[in-house]
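Risk register update: the risk of archive-format incompatibility is retired. Evidence:
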Amino acid sequence: MARRRQHRRTHGMTAVVGVVCCVGLGSAGCARSDAVTQEPPAGDPAQVLRSAADALVDAGSSQTRTSLEMATGGTRVTIRGEGVYDFGRRLGRLKVLLPQDPAGAAVRRPITELLAPGALYMKNRGAGVPADKWVRVDTATLSDGNLVTGGATDPFAAAEVLRGTRSATFVGRTEVAGARVRHYRGTADLEAASREASEVNRGPLGAAAKGFATARVPFDVYLDDEGRIRKIRHRFSFVNGERQEPVAVASTTLLYDFGARADVRLPEDEDIYAGRIAEE
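Archived output:
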């Protein structure tokens, strides 16, 4: 009975994720906690962060690890992803690992996701979708701007949230995955971010500003000496429409191996599933 109650709580929470059921991601890389606060670098922190996405475009591409953690009603769900992203073309490929079935009755296969301007493609979606077909989702229709739905935040969208930075402080210097970085902490506004973002992210970030419980997004971000984001963690909040319960979401993106090859090819039309997707 306890197991069935736990399963119902988890199902209720993961239903809010949308097209990817049971999605949420664990921690993606750690920053050392022994940071020694030093004199802050020159420049207003908020202005530095508003232009951080530009440094990623200059870098071209990188490998990435992502995590999404969701908590509501005493239940926590974690989803992890790993892949590559091309910041110039705004294309990415991730392998997303779903959490284990709470009842232990099913082994969940990884979902392959392709991130593209205006679209999210998923393979191994399950729920009646043929194994050789992709599911395509128009991200313009998602109330969270695909910051949560896919179980991973698009790395460039995550960076462009910083374009709406309202306040920020320099915390100190530390390391992330062996790289020396500057740690900043602050709050961004999604409405402001949508106005300043690149064309492909204006709509999604604007939708998120309206769809989340608040447009204010607290964050921690770590920049290397070239101004590139090495790690960024956002904290989103929205209301589960099914149960009207608040859901806290922590999205973490780790970027490394800049310049890595990012050969991302989108599916042909005939490879996209056009049928109905069953509920899981």
